[in-house]
Write a structure and sequence with these properties.
This protein is mostly helical. The chain has one domain. 76% of the residues lie in helices and 0% in strands. The protein is elongated and about 50 Å long.
């Protein structure tokens, strides 16, 4: 059993994942933070929802789905269970 060091063992795949995650976190912190905080404040203070709530839920659910899918894809990639139809011998012949 080999121990994988994350940034070096996967090559460009790991670099692109890290860049995507950092850019996504920056956008969430810089631009969506106000919507998320105002949506939470409106719900706690007034028990009401508005368009800011939809933007906050959409942003957070998209980021959660991104993390889930990247984690699942990485696990499948590391376990060599990912099926690549274009790499099969039947497709090559």
């Amino acid at each position: 059993m080999t121990v994988l060091s994350y940034p070096h063992s996967l090559g460009i795949y790991s670099f692109s994942v890290m860049i995507n995650t950092l850019v996504t976190l920056y956008v969430l912190i810089a631009y969506a933070r106000g919507f998320i905080l105002r949506a939470f404040h409106n719900y706690v203070e007034y028990r009401s929802t508005n368009m800011e709530t939809l933007i906050a839920l959409g942003s957070l659910s998209a980021f959660a789905l991104y993390l889930f899918l990247m984690g699942r894809f990485t696990m499948e990639y590391l376990n060599e269970q990912m099926e690549m139809p274009h790499m099969r011998e039947e497709a090559i012949m």
